[in-house]
Amino acid sequence: MAEGPDSVDARLGARLAELRAERGWSLGELADRSGVSRSTLSRAERAETSPTAALLNRLCHVYGRTMSQLLSEIEPAPALLVRAPDQRIWRDRTAGFVRRSVSPPHPGLRGELVEGRLAAGADLAYDRPPVPGLEQHIWVLEGTLDVTAQDTEHHLGTGDCLRLRVWGPTRFRCAGPDDVRYVLAVVLP
């Protein structure tokens, strides 16, 4: 749900529409490429709905961007320092996922830090990486996190760190009983 004319959802919707227009694609063409319905794409572009993490992941894959790159493109000029209160937070309320962009945004950088929070019982499944071969380091700060990649499930507890390259589907699950908070370091190939 959009908060106003300059809300994150409104800026994100406008950027998604720009990316589609830059390629000369119709909503139907983008739907075919992403596997997302035309109506969902249209509603996201018009900021009538807040896109889910899974939807943004599919669009990032089609456009060859990480989620942080896409989100940085809707922000003003990049800064070298972003104070904690100014770090951008994005929520997928449906999935119980909160994503904080810790690194100062810049579309030209290959690495970034993200803080993720999953509510107990949350289950995020991505059918493909936003960029094939993306390197991820997942460091659990509090709680437990189950990560599945390349058909292997990894159970991570507080302090554990998993490094992987993402080529196919991944799944992040917080079985509970408490929420999980983790750092995701992402490095483009």
TrEMBL record:
CDD domains: cupin_XRE_C (cd02209), HTH_XRE (cd00093). InterPro entries: Cro/C1-type_HTH, Lambda_DNA-bd_dom_sf, RmlC-like_jellyroll, RmlC_Cupin_sf, TransReg_Diox_bact_type. SMART domains: HTH_XRE. Residues 16-70 form the HTH cro/C1-type domain. This is XRE family transcriptional regulator. SUPFAM superfamilies: lambda repressor-like DNA-binding domains (SSF47413), RmlC-like cupins (SSF51182). Pfam families: HTH_31. Keywords: DNA-binding.
